[in-house]
Write a structure and sequence with these properties.
The chain has 170 residues and is mainly beta. It is built from two helices and twelve strands; from the N terminus they run H-E-E-E-E-E-E-E-E-E-E-H-E-E. Strands 2, 3, 5, 6, 8, 9, 10, 11 and 12 form a nine-stranded mixed β-sheet that branches. Strand 9 and strand 10 (140-148) form a beta hairpin. The longest helix is centred in the N-terminal third of the chain and has 11 residues, at 2-12. The chain is elongated and about 60 Å long. The termini are far apart.
Length: 170
């Protein structure tokens, strides 16, 4: 009985397994696209998907760092906030070769915030999203489909990464 318990503990501790390292931006491909049917009440949801394009497993965790980028490559105001601050612990999402992780971003594309123009567009249109996975670092650039404005000075609520191509979709 004791031998079985030791074997079970050894298997759970990862004996014989190789360590998985954090994903770096260049190891990933990314997309940032609208979640169909999500627009309403001045908000919209986009889904960030990252795919491991290497031959080795790596992991992402928590909230990535984001930067919205305009048509000419100009950095735009970007202020992501956790969807549920202090409520959840980040998980390690292991991406096997070809594997996906996803996160949700909710923002307003058309309701200006304090200090933004009310008679014209609140912010310039964002065409790309620069993503820095955590804790790996480096960046990957995702096209934004369709390009959009992110009002309230680039404010958005962001979920942490979860496993799967559509894992972040409620």
């Amino acid at each position: 009985m004791l031998a079985l318990a030791v074997l079970a503990l050894g298997a759970g501790a990862g004996i014989g397994r190789t360590a998985v390292t954090p994903c770096r931006g260049p190891a990933l491909a990314a997309t940032f696209s609208v979640l169909p049917g999500s627009a309403g009440a001045g908000n919209i949801v986009y889904v960030l998907r990252v795919r491991n394009r290497t031959a080795t497993s790596c992991f992402v965790s928590g909230l990535p760092r984001l930067l919205l980028v305009g048509r000419t490559g100009t950095a735009l105001p970007t202020h992501p906030f956790p969807e549920r601050p202090g409520a959840l612990t980040a998980v390690m999402v292991v991406l096997k070769p070809g594997g996906y992780a996803s996160a949700r971003a909710r923002f307003t594309p058309d309701v200006p915030g304090p200090g933004e123009p009310t008679l014209r567009a609140c912010e310039p249109i964002a065409y790309r999203l620069r993503v820095t996975p955590q804790p790996g670092g480096g960046t990957v650039v995702a096209s934004i489909v369709p390009p959009t404005r992110v009002c309230v000075h680039g404010s958005m609520t962001l979920s942490g990464f979860v496993a799967g191509r559509n894992g972040a979709i409620p």
